[in-house]
Each structure stands twice: as C-alpha cells, then as structure tokens.
Amino acid sequence: MNYIKYLTLVVAGALFVSCDSEEFLNPLPDSAIVVDNFFKSDEDVSSGIVGVYDAIQGVNENTESSSARFNRGIQLEYLLTEHRSDNTRSKTLEGTRADFHRYRVDPDNLQSEDYYQSMYEIIFRANSILNNVSVADSENIAKYTAEAKFLRAYAYFNLVRLYGEVPLVTKVVVPDEKDLLFTRVAVADIYVQIEEDLLEGVENLDNTHKSRASKAAAKALLAKAYLTQPTPNYVGAKELCESISGFALEADFRDVFYNELNDEIIFAVQYIAGNPDESQGFSAEFTSYSRQGRQDGLNIVNPNLAEDFIAAGGNRTAASYAAFGDDAALPVPEDAEVIKFLPEGSDISDSNLPTYGGGPANAGNDWVILRYSDVLLMHAEAILAGGENTNDPSAIDSYMKVRERAGFDAVADRPTVLSKDALLLERRVELAFENHRFFDLLRFGVADAVLGAHASAKGYTSYNARRLLLPIPAREINLSDGVLTQNPQ
Amino acid sequence: MIYQLNTFKKTLSAVLGFAALTLSVSCEEAFEFDLPETGSIEDKSLPTANFSYIPDAENFKILNFTNLSTESTMYEWDFGGGNTSTDKDPSFNFVDGYDKASYDVTLKSMDANGAEAISTISVLLEDKFVPLPVTILNGDFNGGSADWKFAEFTGGNVNPFNSSSDGSFTNYDGTDNGAKTKGAKWTKSTSAGVYLSSNTRYAYQPIVVSESNPDRIVKYILEYEYAIKTPAEAAGVAAGGNRIISNILDGHFTDGADAVASEYLSTFVADEVKGKTTHTTVKQEFTTNSTGLVSIMFSAVTDVDVYVDNVKVYAAE
User: Which pLDDT does position A14 carry in this prediction?
Assistant: First the structure.
C-alpha cells in the first residue's frame, strides 16, 4: 500500500519536473509540423501524396479512442456542418459533441480543434510534397504538383467556410515563423489561392481516379468555390459544371452509397471495413435506437428535415433515414437515424430489431465528397446567379434530372420557373447528411434567417449571427503569442 | 532475507518519493518572492470594434445589431440624438426624432484593462416593404358563384349574381382563350339602386391586404373586366345609366345588410357601353385600412344584362 503512495509521489514529481521541459512549453503549432525530409525518389513523392489522403481519411475513434485531438480527418466533419445546420442533432446533451447543434461551440472544443488540425495536416503534407516534388520523374512533376495543390485547396476551402479568415501557409515553414503561421488572411485572398491551386488541377490532372484528385473533381470543387467566394463567378461555375462529362446519375438512389465508386461519384474518400487503420467510426455513431457507436446517437434527423423529405424527397426518403421503435409509427419521426452509411451486414427491415453486422465500429462505407447530382444542382445554381427565379430551360433540365431520379415526373412535375427556394430544398433532400446543408445555407445567403428561426423554434438560445463562424481553436491562439486573433464571440 | 529486501524497497521508495517531492516543490517555490506584477506580460490582444445590422421583419425602422467586436467585454453604442445602449447586441427603433434615411451608429468596445476600439458605420433605414399578395378565390367565375356569397343577408338575398357563359375571351392568366369563358351576370331583376329589392344581388369576397399605418400608405388595385349590352342588343336604360358598381369595404362582414350600409373605402362606377363580350378593364386603386381586412363587393343598376369577369387584386406599384 505504502509502495503505491510513494509511486504516486514519484509520478507526481515527474510531472512537475517536466514543467520546464522543451516540449511542454513549445508545442508545435498545427499549421507547421516538421518532419525529416524523406523525399528521395519519385516513389517517395508518390507515397507522400497517398499520405495526404490518409490525413483526410483520419483515424477511427474506435482504433485510437483518446479523446484528445488525433487527426480524425473528415470523420468528425458532420459535427461541424450537419449539426450546425437545421438537418441533424446529437441525441445526448453531454460532452462537446453535443455543443455543435446548439450553437455553443467553445474555442477549446476538442472536435473543432481536431478538424482544424486535420485540415492543416493536409495542408502541411501537401506543402511538403510541393517542396520536394523536384526529385520526382520529370514527366510526373506537373501531375504530382496539381494533386498536392488540389488537396491543399480542398482543406483551405473547408477552413475558410468554417472559420473565416485563417492563416494561409503555402510553403514549408518552421515553428518560429509566427507571423506567417498565425497571421489571418482575408477571405477573398484565400479564395484567390484556392482558385489558383484548383486551376492547376483542372489543367494537369486526368480522370484516372475517383478516390483521388481528378480533373473532374478539380472542376467541381472550383465551381463550388466560384459560387461561394465573396464575389461569385457564376459564369465560370456554369462553364465548369457543363464541362464535367463521363458521369451519370445512378438509377437507384440507394446505389449511390452502397455501390462504391459508381458512375455518379466524382471524388470519395475510401474506407475498408474491419481494418482498424483504414476504417471509419461515423457509421456506428449515426445509430441510436440500437446503439453501435461511442455516443448515444449523433446526426439524429430533425423533424423539420423529415417534413421536407415527406414533401419533396420522393424515393430518396426511404433510402436516407429510418425511424425505429415507437418513432416509426409517427407521421413525422422525432428521432430518425441516417441510413446512407449503414455498416456492412446491416439489416434494418425490422424497425424494432435493427442489426448492424459483425463490426459496425470499423465500417468501410466511403465518404462521398463530390458527386454528379451536386454538379447538376450547382449548374442550376450558377444559372440562377444569385437571383430569386430563373426560367432558363437548361437550369430546369439539370434540376429535373435529379428530381426524375427521385421518382418525380419529367412533365407533370416540371416547373416553368425554378426558384431559389425550390433549388435549396432540392439540395437539402438530395444531399442530406453529406455535409452540404450548412454550406448551402451560407452560399444562398439565408443562413442567419433559416438557422435563426430553427434555433428559436428549438430553444437553442446560444444562437446568434456570430455562431455562423466557429471560434478559432484556443490552442492555436495560445501558441501564436498574440498574432492569431479570435473570431467575434 | 525477504524482510531485508522489503526494508530496502521501502527505503528506496521513500528516497525516490522525497526526491520527487523536493523537485515538485522547487518548481512551485521558484517564484515565491516575486512581486505580483513580475512576469506579467503585456496584453497584445486588443479589442476591435465592428458590427452588422438587420432591419426588423415587421418594421424597417427597428434595426437589430449583431456585435462583431473581438477581445472585448463591454460595449457602448451611440445611435445619435443622445440614445445609447450598453447591451452586446441591441435593437434600436429609429422612430422619435429620426427622419433621415441614414444615421451614423458608433460602437465602442472595451476590455477590462481599459483598452478600447471604436467603429462608426452609417446604417441605412430602407423600406424594403413587400405588400402581401392577394389570391382571389374563383376570380374567373369558372366555379359559378362559389366564394362570392355573404353568409347571411337580412332582408335580402345571398345569391351573388347569375352565372353566365358570356364572360371574357381572356383567361385568368391573361392568355387568349379563343372563345368565351365563364363570367358573372346582373340583370334588371337583380339590380340595386332604383330597382332595389329582396332579389338584389351583391357579390362579396373578404380579402387580407397589407395594412396602412401612419408611416406607410399601402395601395392596392382591384382589377376586373366588364361588359354592358348596347341599346342595339337590348333596350332600356336605368335612371343614371346602366352600370356596374365595385366597392372596397372597410372590414369583413357576415351579414350583407351591414356591408351595404357600411362606409366604403373606395367606389368605382363602370359604365362604358360596348356590348356583350366586348370587355373593358377596370383598375380601381384603393388605400388599405389600418387592419388589412377589406372586402370586395360588386352590384349593378341596369335595365340590360351586364357582365363581370377576371377579378384580381394586387399591390399598386
């Protein structure tokens, strides 16, 4: 017994001793992690690029369960996006994951910090590739460069939409370059960099891969950036959407999610079921009635989304969410669950006894970042060009292609005029739970109106217009010696 | 031997523990004799002041401000005219003493160290009022007399008119039908005025429009087409001329007798005689009342058949 006491003292002493160690006082900022240069050959650069995708893919929480930031990549993205829209919420109110849907995310929120760090991990790794790409075979240099820049643009596009002005780091830097690492750059300037990076992808990438950057993915992402940037480029977005070819809508909406890398997919992050290093944990987190995840149900469907599905979802409704137990008998379910990403072996046909296969916590469902129906709806959005209505037949054609797949009639259900509200509604039900809604509301200029009304209906009293931007993680501000500033709180 | 070893273990542990304790204390006590301000660092995170504003949905003179200041905890707003606020996100009604379209609003943001930042923005008070749209039920009379009847009529008749197949050639959406559409018809026996009787017909429909108030006059237009038979088609002229009378009533009414006796917001007399199915379009402008509840009422004074079709109400430009 005494031995344990002494041991505790030893451990405590060791902790105090470490208070002046180099690492504790000088942790590395997320935007600049320095590794020894291992790039020696073409093969190194090629595998380095694969390593960037690893940063997007993230580490499954069921593989490394530490609640500290762990580069979860996009596996937590639904918290920062869907939960902060009117689409979904956390079932429990405990823990920092339950802060997002109530608009009360703090600067020290772990999931927000992890996402911020993950995006800078992508940027850092991409910058490393760009710094060393010269050792690659000369015929590959342009392709590798374009791929790294695509990935960097992808990360900056996410950061600028979620955090606003962020530090813009486009080269390998060392930790004491604080001004470069922490000076926030105007949103418009970040979009200039995103455009420049993606134009290289449009120019130098091909369509070999769907699970890696491609020409089509660069076009689609650039179109979205054009629609989102402070001064939208509607003409450029329209041309890009029209130039994306070789893709088609899946006949059956469900196949979009369960037939991996199908004709509709432009860019997806792949996961492998059962493999702790390559699997994802979000599929399990989306369950609640028969809980498979670590939390009691995340991404739970809000009734007002279910109402929109019932009105405008067509055959997508049955493939998007399901209600279980008593909830299944309600006309509008209160706590429906997302079913676009059910783990392998799931059987939810019995609403009282859903099963989720042998290893739901190590799920292999891909995460779709870009797909063709998104491009079709962006095409209509580009033609609408910020207006309230359009009667342009090609805009309505694109809109109707998506609706026809959902079971609507090409003639009877075709509107003579396509309104902004109808397009936003269509995006909501087509792309629900794919982390689009929050960004759509921002892009359509209705985020404050829609989310303000949603928050007051739900009693989320923490909401105000400042909450449309996440706070910059406190850890980064602390490391910056006062260079990095906080968003209005 | 075992006992000895245990003793040794305990001693070793005690020594290690003591050493650790010494180290941990030394880290804490290193600053024991420093004065309070020693080692305090300058506050480099200074306040910035900024804000945005959105007009209230009901009243454009009320602005709801969103504070976009950083690194600050106390706020002083100045709306001009001596009006101030210390709220973080105030709302302010630019009503008393404010008659311009733009005012400078100043926000001073302060932190607890006394640092402050000031931002002044010219806010615009713009009337982006959009009048309520009005849908007339059965405005094309294709549904016969439905939606045009008083609920009751003391001493009178709730039937609003005679249904007619001699309406306008124009459809409700403005396109040419190529043939007559349905309409509403009044005759000598259903007339008011000199022919007033218990068989007199009044067409009535209550509508909701945007109300007028002291700050804003709201005008709408009642539009309809009408036709009156020529003397060649049918003989006879009522005293004062064959005519259709369209009224806008101040309120909604249950009993037609109360409606007829009420004070009208607007009256128009349509008396162009062009013949059956040769229609004239009336655009009767009216100012809304303070409740937004108004009604349309049609009647006729005529010896010959008269017709009404395609009744619409929309906001005046």
Answer: 43
